[in-house]
Amino acid sequence: MRIDIDMGTAAAPGGTAAPVMLDLEELLATRLLVQGNSGSGKSHLLRRLLEQSAPHVQQVVIDPEGDFVTLAERFGHVVVDGDRSAADLECIAGRVRQHRVSAVLSLDTLDAEAQMRAAALFLNALFEADRAYWFPALVVVDEAQLFAPAVSGDVAEDVRKLSLGAMTNLMCRGRKRGLAGVIATQRLAKLAKNVAAEATNFLMGRTFLDIDMARAADLLGLERRQAEMFRELQRGHFVALGPALARRPLPVRVGTVETAPRAGTPSLMPLPDQPAAEARDLILAPVPLEIRAPVERRAPTPATPSMKEILEQIVRDRPAVTAVDEDVEALPQPEREAAYRIIVHDILQETDAHFRPETLLYQDFCVRCRIKRVGGAPLPLTEFKLLINAGRAGLDPERAGHPDWLRAIDIAREIPDDLQAVFLIVAAAAMTGAPCPSDAAIAALCGQHAPGRARSRLRHLEKSDRLVARSGLSGSRAIVVPDLGWETGWNDPAADAAARSPGLERFAAE
Length: 510
What we know:
The chain has 20 helices and 14 strands.
């Protein structure tokens, strides 16, 4: 069936304004290209098209500046934050096609390369949807020259090829899958030719560069001398041509819209009326101490004890390790385990305790057990290693006795000793819902100074399916513990760069 939507008005013979109608069904088969310099009204035109067609067809908007998220309040579009993992973006795009829900992919929080990767993943997932979900949909791509550049730029070549391939699929092969591409660009010269060439409907706005005016004139079938008209177009005025719009070039003034972008066009306003001396004092006033940029200081490296010092310590503490206090009655098993957890927690609260050798920690542990009058034979060294690895996760003694945490410790028994601490640190963050700890924080909790060792151990745990890492395009990370069904929160890479002190308190508020 034929559905016409009102795009605005055109100057008709006699000076009357006649409405310009766009055949929506024809547009789905023939695609649309919008071109105009910055400030010519491209986004306003796209918003008019989206608002008028929203009740009739599904819409997917690739929005690099976050301008179209306001459609959600008025027309029910689902806003999808582009800062997600590749698997998340592909899954969400598949659901969008399956359930015929209009969506806006907002990419304003990402840099240029991440925007291209996210858009490519999303568009490819729309394109590769199952045949049963090939429903008609408008796919609107604002600032298309970012995603289909004519030449290589500053982004990685593999990312450029991925994004260009997705845009080419949309414009060249999307019609049979129900995808109608609507692309807008500031300059035709910056847009890949094989992407622009597939559009048969055009709306050309104000343009100043000769090369862009020449290409616009060629697309509209105008003579080169008529290309000068593009310099004289006002904001919001376009020249339309195509089977869905007009058979001959037609000047169009785009109509009004119901929604507005989050950041509108700036307008002039009076400057504040204040003396120059006051303005200078206001700007150059001393910066308050609490908001000054923090000075990054590397934590001092604890001195490594010599072999002689280690042996002397062992000799001094040997009676406390080997002796069994027969006069002290051993505590019941549950109370003894609780006492062990408290002692380990107290030991690890001391300065640089995480960096002390396990032999010294074991000596200290045995001495404290005698002081606390725990009683019984000393804890075997193998059991102590597991206990100290669990303590490195930073949970308080009460929470460390929770049945869920005891399940995690049982799983850790099946993991090699050198991987236990890393597994339990991540598991503790996942159990408490804390953000995923950084490699540097994990290394510090394990008594290491090199984040590379933490990364290596995380990779070993991933290969054995003990952990599954999920990465966001901005560098954020979350880790799943499949055996327990837990997942950490997404971390903040910028904040993690400064987190180097031991203790889970940096990642979760108890």
